[in-house]
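Much of our argument rests on the idea that a fold can be written as discrete symbols. In the encoding step, the backbone of a single protein was reduced to a row of integers, each denoting a local shape. We regard such an encoding as a compact summary of how the chain folds. The record that follows shows the chain in one-letter code together with its fold in token form:
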Amino acid sequence: MYKKFKGTLKKNDIASIKKTKKMENIKKKIIFSKNLFKNMLKSKYFINIRRKYKKINKKFKLKVYPREEIYNNIINNFDNINEMFFRFIGLKMNHLIDIVFSNSLTIKKVKISTVTRQTRSGRQFRKKVCIVIGDFRGHVGLGIKSSLNYYEALNSAIKRAKLNFTRIKRGFWEDTSGRPHTLASRCSGKFGSVIINIIPAPRGKGIKAARYQYDVISVSGVHDCYTKSFGSTKSSFNTIQATYKALLLSYSFNSPDIWRITTNKNFSDLI
């Protein structure tokens, strides 16, 4: 409207009209988002998700408690955490991981680089940080974050790594004596155009991998393995994420050790 009467209106009037239009659009968006959220909760998809979470709560006895009670329950029942990692139900609180894995956790800076973005005012430089967390006993977490301040990026990357903290499946090469030293089976992960295969190796061979792959695998607790890489491995952040995905998929092949012991039952009894 103000374009037609551009000659008569002043700059202050035009600015006030723009502000009012912005406020009206914001109000419309808020009303639309509230109605959309209510309709989504009533949909069949969200009802099924609620049912799944109810089943999980019954199985693991997860209820809404204050923070202190949650910490005490998790510290006393460490087996439940391994079951949660096995079911891909992560701990979505940084404080829990700090308490449970406080002494054994190690934080490793894998890569730090500067990233640019072109804007109207010029180039905007940021720091991108990649961090891996592990306890050398089959638990790994990866976090990547970029921000204008280096310390903000570092702290937020550590938080993301703790939230992505999961368990991997380790195994043996022929001899089952001692602690597990390799992966239980061959695994492969893909991110972007990069594909990385991790192959189990005999005891004493070491980790045969590049620098970034070595940093991720060594923290997880795997001491002996071979690696193969395909694609543009120059993009180092993609290679790091591909190795992390390969370690996560170690539970994709379930060996007989994980199978449940079940008695012979009729099919009618299961129904």
